[in-house]
Amino acid sequence: MFIKNLRKLSLLILVFSLVSGLFGCSSGYADNPNKDRETLFQVSTINALMEGLYDSVITVGDLLEYGDFGIGTFEGLDGEMVVLNGKCYQIKYDGAAYLKEDSAGVPFADVTYFDKDYEGEIASGTTFEQLKTLVGETLPTENIFYAIKIEGTFTFMQTRSVAGQEKPYPPLTAVTADQVVFDFNNVKGTIIGFYCPEYVAGVGVAGYHLHFITDELDAGGHILNFTVDEAIMYIDYTNEFYLMLPGEGSDFYNTDFSPDYSEGIEEAEK
Ligand SMILES: [Zn+2]
User: Which residue, 152, 222, 159, is CA-closest to 188?
Assistant: First the structure.
């Protein structure tokens, strides 16, 4: 139902764009010529996931209009999402990755078009914890968004995925308590994810949120830990942020977001 409404809204935006084009006023993001390149586009908030809001906000097909690179999850919290080179993959509870159909629903995601602003080798033996310092020291500021892509081989890679849920949806921490963990040894693949500044905590995951997919595009998940064998890191500096919230009639409208979710997010995502 939300997807139908969204289509209507898109149509309205299109009509408005045409009309505003004639009268010379701006209609915002839809008309922004930079939207394809320098904007992090996010669907819903991490606090909404904490409250068990796993209904679809946008389809995979529409999400891919806003970026060719990113991460997220699927309706019902059905596994981990990776968007790489314009294709959307679902890493399910069995650990396997599947190409996802355009009609599938998305309750939460972050995507952008990836243009590298920085490229650097990562030393052999570097762990996820160590990489966090490296990025903090190497990049110009901790106060903007970064899209992070790391290609290479990893002596160790640990990921997780979660099982799709039925309504009434349990909160995120209850689902991740039953997460399944996958260990890979000497695996070749790509890390896909984002660094979000501390001040967006609750909207996004503050700090690092990384997913992984193998070179064969057949497995991966939400990253818990890794050790680099040899890898190259590419960073896209991202100064713009666009947030799409669930529409009218959604549970999002009636949820009390006053609790402090920071500890729960730490537990669920890190
Ligand atoms: Zn994740």
Answer: 152
Task: Provide the CATH number for the domain around residue 219.
Answer: 3.30.1330.80
CA dist 268 and 68 (Å) reads: 26
Cα 23 to ligand 1 centroid, rounded to whole Å = 43
Asked whether residue 110 is domain-assigned, the answer is yes
206: containing domain: 38-270
Residue 33 belongs to a domain: no
Q: State the total domains in the chain.
A: 1
- How is residue 76 annotated by DSSP? G
Tell me, yes or no, whether 83 lies in a domain. Answer: yes
Helix locations, 120-164, DSSP H: 128-138
Residues near ion ligand 1 (CB < 5 Å) are: 222
CA distance 52 to 49: 5
Convert the pLDDT of each residue in 199-237 to its tens digit.
999 999 999 999 999 999 999 999 999 999 999 999 999
Would the pLDDT of 180 be above 60? yes
Distance from the alpha carbon of residue 17 to the mean position of ligand 1, in angstroms: 34
| Cα 148 to ligand 1 centre (Å) | 14
Give the whole-number percent of the chain exceeding pLDDT 70: 87
Ligand 1 center from residue 221 Cα (angstroms):
8
pTM > 0.85: yes
pLDDT of residue 29: 63
28 in any annotated domain: no
